[in-house]
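S.,

Sequence below, as promised.
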Amino acid sequence: MDASSRIRAGWAWLAAPELWSRRRTAGELVLALVLGLMAAGTEELLGSEGLRLLFVGVSAALLSLLRRRMPTPVLVITGGLAPLMSGFAPLLMVVGWSAGRRIVGAGRALAAFTVAYVLFIGTTLVDSWSQQAQMTAVLLSTLYFLATTVVPGLASRYWTQRRTLLHALQERNSQLLRERAMVAGQARLLERQRIAQDMHDSLGHQLALISVHTGALEVDPGLTPRQREVVGVLRDASVTAMHELREVVGILRDGVEAAPSVDESGRAARGTAGIAGLVEAARAAGNAVELRCSGGARPLAAAADHAAYRIVQESLTNAYKHAPGAAIGVELRYEPDSFVLEIVSGAPVAPAPGEVVSGGQGLTGLRERARLVGGIVHAGPADGGGFRVAGVLPYGVGEAAPFVATEDDFRQQSPQAALGNGGPVMGWTVSERELAMGGQKRSRGGGLALGCGIAVAALLVLGAAGVFGLFFLVGSMSEGMIDPVEYEKVKIGAAEDEVRDGLPSGDTIATTGLSGKGPQEPADSECLVLMSSEVGDNFDTEPVFRFCFRDGKLIEKKSYEVSR
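The prediction came back faster than expected:
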């Protein structure tokens, strides 16, 4: 097996559906494992431990494995659990991408993402109900959901719809090419039948008249023996022409060589066995013709045998007309897989006598005859100024080549095969791939540019959300933080309104979770907890200040540290 065969076999193995199925399963398992580990690791960084880590990791892996089979339920469940489990952030992006691609119907996809969003916001509000700044939490949660779920879902849906459209257009292109080939083939057959009918009606009639008249003239007692012999030759020639006409008519009508209705000697005379006679006739006419044979002689099918004879006959005729006096070489080679014949004429040694009469269809007819038996014919200039005609014919019955001409075959525009078609087609592939799949490379480049554009857009949205969130967080910090100097200035017994006017409101997400920690609050009091602008000595604790009011007065102020 040569290198190209090994490469093709390797690509075929890589493209096997079973191999791709195993790879997809292995990829899904690896992705589920990675998402589970990321979820558990994120939870551990945020202080969780024990069974919660195991539950989060296993849940993330399980939901990842189910996202292809049940995209809508997995999206809804993940959206509802993500606010409670911070480790679900990577899983939410993967689930959003998969749901956008696999949920059928824009209405269903919109409903699924809406339900997931409602559950996401609802769970966020329930989890932070006892805290302040509920609308702030809704805003940040909405930006988070848009960035991690909606944007990947939209990008995936657009990419999938575009790829589906490219596939549909490729199928349509393939179907049109098949229909075009069928129409061309039927037109070819109709034309051949018309030609056959014309030949049968006109040439058949004229040859029949020639045969009848020469037959009657042959028995005329007024002819000399020499004249009678010449008339007999004419009659035999007309009968032979009739038989050959029937063979041609059979080929034109049915596309296969009709069995000649002559004896075996007549068949052999017009096959490879008759090539030697053609060469001898050419030599007798004064032409320098050399015949060479190589390989063990093998029989050809009747149609191929006759095609070989016609190729040599037409090539010798062209050499007589266009290169008079030139040396001609006829070579027959019996190769292991096919029969090869080559006719090479040298440069003309004398100019052609006047204008050469030629229909211009001889070589075209040879190509068509060879095609019908599964062979090929090539004609063109040879080295040294001569002309070369070469033909390759099968030993058995070959399959005719497609009717569509090579120079007019759209399928040559793409080296890859289209879906549903046996041969390459005009280019997914729209393109692939964009409407012409021959632009598959352009299509893939366009798809890559589209993916990069969507990724950049997603990053811009995330960046904008991050900048907005950072700005909002920095602004809100001033509403929940005071300097220790300000804490010292506040005196116990001062009026509540006076103290609150000089302190931040504490209505910020920065102070969420500080209430209820530290020393017990005085009975029947209302306390304001603020953060310190200075960092504590221990990284695990946060210094805070607490002011407690009762009956319109400040009854207690305390400075202590709480765990982060």
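Residues 134-218 form the longest helix (85 residues).

Coffee later?
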